[in-house]
Specification:
Elements (H helix, E strand, L loop, with lengths): L4 E4 L8 E3 L4 E3 L4 H7 L10 E3 L12 E5 L17 E4 L7 E3 L4 E3 L4 H7 L10 E3 L4 H7 L5 E5 L18 E4 L8 E3 L4 E3 L4 H7 L10 E3 L12 E5 L9
Antiparallel strand pairs: 1-5, 2-5, 3-4, 6-10, 7-10, 8-9, 11-15, 12-15, 13-14
Length: about 240
């Protein structure tokens, strides 16, 4: 999706993406993205515009990247998993809600309620709440960023219609088995069983870098009651 921000456990931005490092980009080359971002993150609005600078907010060894191409958010083609929570700097897509602690009846958005229950508030019988990530945002991210959660989508155990990149990270407000992904808990992995991911991570997060490697351990940097997952099986992120 054009303008989507995703966290990667990679030391490069996949082709069609750019690291969110505050750089200026030419409006003539990326006019649709420029229309979405305006000059909220820099630029003069005539020749160039700025990307958000999220380098200080990214966990060690990871990068926030923004999609430079793709379908507009209005088309609502994104098919993520229910509960998937994304940092965003563009208008809220359909099937998503801002993570602002709002309350819903338990018969509203039945899919997320089935997974989060009263984890973030509500009585769990008549009402439940989405997480409030505003304080977390203020401590880590620049202005004009917000978190959104998909309240409609696939179950985490389902096969995605559009595979994620290997090394792409997903943030969920619960712990569950996610098809093709592993919990970011610093687990030691064997190279022979995970060659593609090993080639991308090497020993940046630990391991001997020869026969084994470690997944990133993001338990302490995730928002309270959230878990990061890393894609183990998926599409190979193109470098160019």
């Amino acid at each position: 999706m054009l303008g989507q921000i995703t966290l990667f456990a990679l030391d490069f931005a996949p082709a069609g993406w750019a690291v969110c490092d505050g750089r200026l980009l030419a409006i003539s080359q990326l006019s649709e993205l420029a229309d979405l971002l305006g000059t909220r993150f820099g630029g003069n609005g005539r020749e160039n515009f700025g990307l958000p600078d999220l380098r200080n907010a990214a966990p060690s060894g990871c990068n926030y990247c923004i999609s430079l191409e793709g379908y507009p958010y209005r088309e609502n083609r994104y098919m993520g998993v229910v509960g998937e929570t994304l940092l965003s700097v563009i208008p809220k897509p359909a099937d998503s809600e801002e993570c602002a602690g709002q309350s819903y009846r338990t018969n509203q958005h039945l899919q997320p309620f089935a997974y989060i229950g009263e984890r973030f508030g509500g009585d769990g019988v008549n009402t439940y709440k989405l997480p409030n990530l505003e304080a977390y945002l203020r401590t880590k991210f620049p202005d004009n960023c917000y978190y959104l959660m998909y309240v409609e989508g696939l179950s985490p155990e389902s096969e995605r219609q559009e595979p994620l990149f290997i090394g792409e990270l997903t943030l969920l407000p619960f712990e569950v088995t996610v098809k093709g992904s592993g919990l970011c808990n610093g687990a030691l992995m064997q190279k022979k069983d995970n060659q593609a991911l090993f080639d991308l991570l090497k020993n940046r997060f630990g391991g001997d870098g020869v026969n084994n490697f470690k997944l990133p351990n993001l338990a302490t940097v995730a928002p309270t009651n959230f878990k990061y997952y890393i894609t183990l099986k998926g599409a190979l992120p193109p470098r160019f």
